Automatic annotation (TrEMBL):
NCBIfam families: glycerol_kin, PRK00047.1
Lineage start: Archaea, Methanobacteriati, Methanobacteriota, Stenosarchaea group, Halobacteria
Main enzyme class: transferase
Residue span, Carbohydrate kinase FGGY N-terminal domain: 3-243
PROSITE patterns, A to Z: FGGY_KINASES_2
Protein known as: glycerol kinase
Family indicated by similarity: Belongs to the FGGY kinase family.
Species this chain originates from: Halomarina salina
Xref: CDD domains: ASKHA_NBD_FGGY_GK
UniProt pathway: Polyol metabolism; glycerol degradation via glycerol kinase pathway; sn-glycerol 3-phosphate from glycerol: step 1/1
Molecular function via GO: ATP binding; glycerol kinase activity
Gene field: glpK
One Pfam family of this chain: FGGY_N
Length: 489
């Protein structure tokens, strides 16, 4: 059987998946990695563990097949920053993860004209979430920056680290580059002014390539009998857009994972946002112009459900759905899961998680319901901003990610948006998108038309409860109470 393998290196774990020509998934492997929180607001990963886990899941997957895959695709947690020694291949420090807030003060101190430049050239809102200030912090130690100027120290997002470690090429794709706050999305090139501002030598940055193209070859440390082309790389959210076959301008998807991300394909021209969204590169095929998207990043969604279990409100995250549906409403309780600040459309680095409306009669069921509604309301806030920017109303929303296995969340989301929510038949659309990009590059699939025809929905959820949407305005009041909370006394 001919197949493509995709690696999805996410915030919490690493997945490998084998996909055949029909788009069917034949095998999966998954392994979690450690999360480190050395100080409040800090989040770190061990980059060597990420690589080891990639090799582990590839080895497990390959053992089930008689032949090597025809291509390998990679998708990754975006914005997470790695710095490593170009000679030894050893990371210089733990990877600084996307949610990490240690550089908040640096962002707060940016001049207004620089903020405007960042928005205009990168399409991003200045925020510690993105990679630029993470790279800056990693290079601030010892003589790292000086060595980076000569190429002795390299930096990159996780995809670049994996491409270099697996195949020896220091490369990234346009989607990951567009999340660094150092990349001019219209010129599709690193921006010299921004690199200089944040002290990131361009010699240390990876070569930027189309998402569906060439990123070297790998035997995955001997797991493959012959070198396999690394033929597709996409940041995780753009990979999910690709995996959901959102190839037409106006099509949209939301992925619900640790956070959630709503992307709408806008075509060959970037649409600038006036409503707190990000303009980003959606994908690029080799020899073709880049495609763009509007994106709304919600920092905390699935992690909010995990928090309910962490503090004992529910025994297990899977219990949240049934508990939430055991009550008709949260009885005046509203939650804002701003554990790492608020993303789009608010962009408040100092917002923090808030629950309001508690009474003596509040139960765990009300808190579970309020959490799911908060997830849905955050998506609605982004969808409203997106419609205002693009001028396109949303007829349906394709959804994926671990949290959408929760039917209650899908139903509440449909009610909150007042549009049909369609769940993908393949839950791992992020990995699927990476497989698609790699397969297109090597001719495994002929065109995106083939992929569009393969896409299937698993379940459809139509709006049925107007009361949920009616609580949205009240939830926005709770958001105002969560804002600008994390200030020094």
């Amino acid at each position: 059987m001919e197949y493509v393998v995709a690696v999805d290196q996410s915030t919490t774990g690493t997945r490998a998946m084998a996909v055949d020509r029909s788009g069917a998934v034949h095998a999966r492997e998954y392994l979690e990695h450690e999360q480190s929180y050395p100080e409040p607001g800090w989040v770190e990963h061990d980059a060597t563990q990420l690589l080891a886990n990639v090799n582990y899941v590839l080895a497990r997957l390959r053992s089930g097949f008689s032949e090597d895959p025809v291509a390998l695709g990679i998708t990754n947690q975006r914005e997470t920053a790695v710095a490593w020694d170009a000679e030894t291949g050893q990371p210089l420090a733990p990877a600084i993860v996307r949610q990490d807030r240690r550089t908040t003060d640096r962002i707060d101190g940016l001049a207004d004209d620089l903020r405007a430049t960042i928005r205009e050239r990168t399409g991003l809102e200045p925020d510690a979430y993105f990679s630029a200030t993470k790279f800056e912090r990693l290079l601030d130690r010892e003589d790292h920056r000086e060595r980076a100027r000569s190429g002795e120290v390299l930096v990159g997002t996780v995809d670049a680290w994996l491409c270099w470690s697996l195949g020896g090429e220091h490369a990234t794709d346009v989607t990951n580059a567009s999340r660094t706050m150092l990349f001019d999305i219209e010129r599709c090139a690193w921006d010299e002014t921004l690199c200089e501002e944040f002290g990131v030598p361009m010699a240390a940055l990876p070569d930027v390539r189309p998402s569906s193209g060439s990123f070297g070859e790998t035997t995955a440390q001997g797991m493959f009998t012959e070198p396999v082309p690394i033929a597709g790389v996409l940041g995780d959210q753009q990979a999910a857009l690709f995996g959901q076959a959102c190839f037409d301008p106006g099509s949209a998807k939301t992925t619900y994972g640790t956070g959630s991300f709503l992307l709408q394909h806008t075509g060959e021209e970037p649409v600038r946002s006036d409503h707190g969204l990000l303009t980003t590169v959606a994908y690029q095929r080799e020899g073709e112009p880049p495609q763009y998207a509007l994106e709304g990043s919600v920092f905390t969604t699935g992690a909010a459900v995990e928090w309910l279990a962490d503090v004992g409100i529910v025994d297990d995250p899977e219990e949240c759905a049934s508990l939430a549906e055991s009550v008709e409403s949260p009885e005046g309780v509203f939650g804002v899961p701003a554990f790492s600040g608020l993303g789009a459309p608010h962009w408040d680095q100092r917002a923090r998680g808030t629950v309001v409306g508690l009474t003596r009669g509040t139960t765990s069921a009300h808190l579970a319901r309020a959490t799911l509604e908060a997830i849905a309301f955050q998506t609605r806030a982004v969808a409203e901003a997106m419609e205002a920017d693009s001028g396109r109303s949303m007829d349906a929303l394709r959804v994926d990610g671990g949290a959408v296995e929760n039917d209650a969340l899908c139903r509440i989301q449909a009610d909150a948006l007042d549009v049909e929510v369609v769940r993908s038949a393949v839950g791992e659309t992020t990995a699927l998108g990476a497989a698609y990009a790699a397969g297109l590059s090597v001719g495994f699939w002929d065109s995106t038309d083939d992929l569009r025809e393969q896409w299937r929905g698993d379940a459809r959820f139509v709006p049925s409860d107007e009361a949920v949407a009616g609580r949205y305005d009240r939830w926005q009041e709770a958001v105002e109470r969560a804002r600008d909370w994390a200030r020094e006394e």
